[in-house]
Amino acid sequence: MSAVLFDFSGTLFRVESAEAWLRAVLEEAGAGLPEEEVAATARALEVAGALPGGASPGRVPEEVAGVWRVRDESAAAHRAAYTGLSRQVALPDPGLHDALYDRHMTPAAWAPYPDALEVLSGLRESGIGVGVVSNIGWDLRPVFREHGLDRFVDTYVLSYEHGVQKPDPRLFAVACEALGVDPRAALMVGDDRRADGGAAALGCAVHFVDHLPAAERPDGLRPVLDLVGRGREAGKR
């Protein structure tokens, strides 16, 4: 075991709650929404699946379905898909739909899981290569830099930069090539069994974590260190 690939959202980082997301945008825009309507509107946005990295949509409207299927293959598709979901919910100003999308791309909208620093630094100390392989429509590198984790990541492979989205094994292959490792010597860590499980087609080991709020998953990444340690020991036999 000489490399670990990580998913981003729901694995290393968790996006803020839908209510915090909405409140931040309303405050920034100086938009008025009665206090008693804020929680209900946030809940409606959550049900619609409008917050990237949050809950999946309960239903994808027909007019959004086409772009939703390829949302992670380009920046334009990603924005169109999520603002299309957001527009299913009435807001005091139509411009707020794009403002919400813009907010989710800021480092302030994301928090690392409590054990992310410990695990990433532990891998670095052990000489393990680290890659981030994400289905996403925007550059997440500033999020890692702002939270002090960029120094532990050797390569980023982002779907929108390659026009390919997980579970397509080509994304994982790009990451392994960048790290100079055989996929059979790599571990993929993610929260989506279908998307992240695609790494298994290359021979990568795969480990899943629960997509939970950060406060509810304080040590979900720590088993990665044990898995890597056992993998290296097995390789010596």
General description of the model:
It is a single chain. By secondary structure, the chain is an alpha/beta fold. It folds into two domains: 3-14 and 110-236, HAD superfamily/HAD-like (Rossmann fold), CATH 3.40.50; 16-108, no CATH class. It has helices at residues 18-29, 35-48, 62-69, 75-86, 96-104, 116-125, 141-146, 159-162, 169-179, 223-236; strands at residues 3-6, 13-15, 110-112, 129-134, 155-158, 186-190, 205-208. A five-stranded parallel sheet has the order 5-4-1-6-7, sandwiched between helices. A two-stranded antiparallel sheet has the order 2-3. Helix 7 links the parallel strand 4 and strand 5 (155-158). Helix 1 (18-29) crosses helix 2 (35-48), helix 3 (62-69) runs antiparallel to helix 4 and helix 4 crosses helix 5 (96-104). The mean pLDDT is 95. GO terms for molecular function: hydrolase activity. This is Hydrolase. Keywords: Hydrolase. It comes from Streptomyces griseoruber.
CATH class of the largest domain: Alpha Beta
Based on CA atoms alone, the radius of gyration comes out at: 18 Å
Low-pLDDT segments, ≥5 res: none
Described by strand count, sense and barrel closure, the largest sheet is: 5 strands, parallel
Distance between the termini: 13 Å
Strand content: 5-15%
SSE series: EEHHHHHEHEHEHHEEH
Given the helix and strand composition, which structural class is it? Answer: alpha/beta
Number of domains: 2
How many alpha or pi helices?
Answer: 10
* Apparent shape: globular
What is the third-level CATH name, the topology of the largest domain?
Rossmann fold
Determine the CATH superfamily of the largest domain: HAD superfamily/HAD-like
Number of strands: 7
Overall mean confidence score, pLDDT: 95
Which percent bin holds the helix content?
40-55%
Strand order of the largest sheet: 5-4-1-6-7
> Which CATH architecture of the largest domain is right?
3-Layer(aba) Sandwich
